[in-house]
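Quick illustration, no need to memorize.
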Amino acid sequence: MYNFEIKTNRQPYWGSQSGVDQEIEKFFEAFTKNEDYYTPVCELSEFEKMFTVSLDMPGIKKEDVNIELKDNQLYVSGERKKSTLTETETVLKTEKVYGKCARVFTLPKNVKVENIEARFENGVLEIMIPKEEKTLPRKISITDLKETELKN
């Protein structure tokens, strides 16, 4: 069995997320929010021979994305930089997110970490993590040992 763990930038204050807990979480989030740091949304998928991790990273350039593997954890980070405004431009309102982003994924034990691949297209980072091939069970036959074979 494979266990894939996603770590967010912060841990929830309470284990269960009932409606009240979610509202309290939103309240505390307002105090801990860092405007220069955000968490990209992701999607994990499992296939017969691999896992895929897909992260939405709009506005981030390929060269500003970093993927590292350390101690069976996959660290993904990037940065969306603000464009420079001219003297005649003024941003009245923005809902875009700028700054650094990061996600950490604890990988299952039975994956081929040396064969992990990634591609980045249209603001979506897709990481392919192949599974190790499971060894098939085999029957071991029992044979009679002759006394001469034991002495050798």
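The two ends are 42 Å apart (CA to CA).
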